[in-house]
Amino acid sequence: MRYRKKNKEPIGQVMIPKVISIGFFGGFIWSLIASITAFFNFTSVSPKTFILRSWLQTEWTDHWLGQLISIIILSLLSILLALLYYVTFKKIQGIWAGIMIGFVLWFIAFWLLEPIFPNIPAFYMLDSDTVVTTLCLFILYSVFISYSISFAYSQQLKDENTG
């Protein structure tokens, strides 16, 4: 186990709070942007379409409260993805890992998990605006997560070696 020189804490213990905050805020920011793109009809799906409307067909889920609850749930789920990224890909520098992970996440959400979300049209029924917008959002989200975590990890190693 690698330790920091100053206070002898393992690097993982220093990085985990950073990874959690990167995951939460990444999920919050990009879910909020996804909600805005749905509001302006750039896409026919929004966070509430995935999280709440697929299982609950009550009226409140179609309003701002449903969107807010969905954004918070996606932010919490994003923490898990950030932790998984930290464990597996933290040493990879650059944006290419994030781009590839964004493609994979989009494929999982819109192709593999499509039967779980009955409120989402099948992939071949989605309009091109929805496909392009959601694919770009997934890529931007995962680039944000991957670049932020790999940057924080490299900075932590740099601080350890200099300090």
TrEMBL record:
Does the keyword Iron belong to this entry?
no
Arranged from A to Z, the UniProt key words for this protein are: Membrane, Transmembrane, Transmembrane helix
InterPro entries on file = YqhR
- Transmembrane stretches, start-end: 20-44, 64-87, 94-112, 132-153
- The entry's protein name is YqhR family membrane protein
Read off the lineage from the record: Bacteria, Bacillati, Bacillota, Bacilli, Bacillales
